[in-house]
Amino acid sequence: MQLELSQFPVATARPEVRALSESRIRQVANAAMGREDVLPFWFGEPDGVTPLAIREAAKQSLDAGDTFYGPTLGLPALRESLAGYLSRLHRPVDVARIAITNSGVNGLMLACQAILSPGDRVVAVVPLWPNLVEIPVILGAVVDRVALSLNPQSQRWHLDLDALLARLTPGTRAVLINSPNNPTGWVMSAEDQARLLAHCRHHRIWILSDEAYERLVFQPTDSTSAPSMLDIAHPDDALIVANTFSKTWQMTGWRLGWLVTPLELIGDLGKLIEFNTSCAPTFIQKAGVVAIETGEPDLAAFRQRLIAGRETLLTALQAIPGITAGIPDGAMYAFFKLEGTHDSVALAQALVQTVGLGLAPGSAFGPEGEGWLRWCFARPPALLLDGVRRLKKSIAREA
């Protein structure tokens, strides 16, 4: 008997996946990538290539034949280097609590797979990098949102911690924190972290802390790292800290990250790594060891470039009538609003088409970002000023 077409299952993805929005940053960028007349400030990555010593380490590893599978949780040498690195920055971190992942976002997905079930309630501090806030949705969790606000006096982003704690009710499974924050540059204070940790301990709520930008901080200027949950947490706290080599060591294209978890979780996390990617590439992990061992001078120089870019861009933006720009204390972005803007995607697309200025639309980071634009200032000051000149030209056209 021949089956009718209607008797076959519908070849579509799960509803949670079908409901995902296309990346609005990519929506703007894909239409103009490769155009030589466009200044691209839409992605979050530095303007320079990865430092030479790191690149040479990968080449040497490849030449040595390191093209085979490695340990699921990562090379012992890299895990040990990270344990030493993290212990210097924070409280001592046992190497047994560290898992190497194929990028920071892969680590975030693994962490959520480990602790979230369909129907779980998750609370996120927003606006937020869309990958982080959508991962729980993909897994069938429900995401509640608590928004940052811009303090008009300090011109800095602010979290109403009491409002956040009020939403972290018994039965909440996890809270998502990204500090320093993408896109705003908000940095959670050590005092707020301590109160959050105490509250989550009491209610048995997981904390997933994305600390990808922890070394890229500007206030105070002598800080070597943003406040971290690893500064205050006990090893058995319900805390997962995710990080990446992408930002600190200018390795965005390498796709290498790590997680720090409670020891009790690490075995199950290893299973998830096996069933997702099996392991991170060995030659990239060996480059990661060199990044940790030799990268501090390059990091210091990179941070100085970011400080210069931040100062140049913010000074120029804040001088333009009708623009509101928050002061970022970390990361590599200016998040600003042009008075009268209600559709950030349309504005970003218009800027590309009319003046060749490539920015990320604020709505890519959730409805709280609508009307805002994100500008990556990891670029030379002269290039940033050229971008501001183009923005002024666009504003003049609309006047």
- H/E series: HHEHHEHEHEEEHEHEEEHHHEEHEEEH
Q: What kind of oligomer do you see?
A: single chain
Low-confidence stretches: none
Q: Would you tell me which CATH topology of the largest domain applies?
A: Aspartate Aminotransferase, domain 2
Please, could you describe this protein's structure?
The protein is α/β, with parallel strands linked by helices and 399 residues long. The chain folds into two domains: 138 residues, Alpha-Beta Complex (Aspartate Aminotransferase, domain 1); 227 residues, Type I PLP-dependent aspartate aminotransferase-like (Major domain) (Aspartate Aminotransferase, domain 2). 40% of the residues lie in helices and 15% in strands. It has 13 helices and 15 strands. α5 packs parallel to α6 and α11 packs parallel to α13. The termini are far apart. 46% of the residues are buried. The mean pLDDT is 94.
Keywords:
Aspartate Aminotransferase, domain 1; alpha/beta; globular; single chain; seven-stranded mixed β-sheet; 13 helices; Aspartate Aminotransferase, domain 2; 399 residues; 40% helix; 2 domains; four-stranded antiparallel β-sheet
In short:
40% of the residues lie in helices and 15% in strands. It has 399 residues and is of the alpha/beta class.
